[in-house]
């Protein structure tokens, strides 16, 4: 019987793999590790659990892995781990069907919560419709400037790039960014991106 709490950890760095495996096993997950996306695909282990993968890896990167899994009809939710400089890539990953992305550095609770959410999230179209309507209502509460910041965030722009394009200071961008997160009810950038994609918000 497939293990519903199985986590497939994919990273080319052995120390990172071992560290994540220890953390997740301590939290009660079953863990399988792979040193590349290619090895994971060759394993055929695509039916249960979820995938935690680094975005940047030699050969098959985390985004391409997610795209290939989706093309194969795999039901596995994918969580990608990314550095701050990889946020535009992570946004692209979300648009390609990745469940979540986590920015480095992250704490243990953030990762474990993301995995628990990925493993427990049901396929519920009715729930998605309700969430879409709720997201659209929250977007209506944003000011013009806040919508500009939302578009830039979902587009993967850094605070510095937003400041330059909008003609405001990086500190002001941070203030608007915080307001957007609050009004949208988003606890993380990945959640904000997911909400915007669900609402078909053209960023």
How is this structure best summarized?
This protein has ten helices and five strands; from the N terminus they run E-H-E-H-E-H-E-H-E-H-H-H-H-H-H.
Strand and helix layout:
Elements: E1 6-10, H1 14-26, E2 30-34, H2 37-43, E3 50-54, H3 62-71, E4 78-82, H4 87-95, E5 100-103, H5 108-120, H6 125-140, H7 144-154, H8 159-166, H9 170-184, H10 189-198
Calculate the terminal CA-CA distance, rounded to whole Å.
42 Å
Uncertain residue ranges? 123-127
Placed side by side, the strands forming the largest sheet appear as: 2-1-3-4-5
**Helical fraction:** 55-70%
H/E order of the elements? EHEHEHEHEHHHHHH
> Structural class from helices and strands?
alpha/beta
Overall shape: globular
Proportion of β residues?
A: 5-15%
Output the number of helix runs.
10
Q: What is the average per-residue confidence, as pLDDT, rounded to a whole number?
A: 83
Give the strand tally: 5
Radius of gyration: 18 Å
Task: Note down, in words, how this protein is organized.
- This protein has helices spanning 14-26, 37-43, 62-71, 87-95, 108-120, 125-140, 144-154, 159-166, 170-184, 189-198; strands at residues 6-10, 30-34, 50-54, 78-82, 100-103.
- The chain has 203 residues and is of the alpha/beta class.
- It has a five-stranded parallel β-sheet, sandwiched between helices.
- Helices cover 55% and strands 12% of the residues.
- α8 packs across α9 (170-184).
Provide tags for this entry.
single chain; alpha/beta; 203 residues; 10 helices; globular; 55% helix
């Amino acid at each position: 019987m497939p293990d519903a709490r199985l986590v497939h950890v994919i990273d080319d760095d052995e120390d990172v793999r071992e560290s994540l495996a220890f953390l997740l096993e301590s939290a009660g997950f079953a863990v399988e590790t792979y040193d590349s996306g290619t090895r994971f695909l060759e394993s055929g282990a695509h039916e249960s659990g979820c995938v935690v993968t680094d975005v940047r890896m030699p050969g098959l990167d985390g985004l391409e892995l997610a795209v290939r899994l989706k093309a194969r009809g795999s039901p596995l939710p994918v969580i990608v781990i990314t550095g701050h400089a990889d946020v535009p890539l992570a946004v692209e990953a979300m648009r390609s069907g990745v469940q979540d992305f986590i920015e480095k550095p992250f704490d243990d609770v953030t990762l474990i919560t993301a995995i628990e959410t990925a493993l427990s999230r049901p396929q519920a179209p009715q729930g998605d419709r309700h969430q879409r309507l709720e997201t659209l209502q929250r977007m209506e509460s944003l000011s013009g400037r806040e919508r500009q910041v939302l578009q830039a965030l979902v587009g993967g722009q850094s605070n510095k790039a937003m400041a330059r394009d909008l003609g405001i200071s990086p500190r002001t961008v941070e203030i608007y960014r915080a307001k957007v997160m609050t009004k949208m009810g988003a606890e993380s950038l990945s959640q904000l991106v997911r909400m915007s994609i669900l609402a078909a918000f053209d960023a």
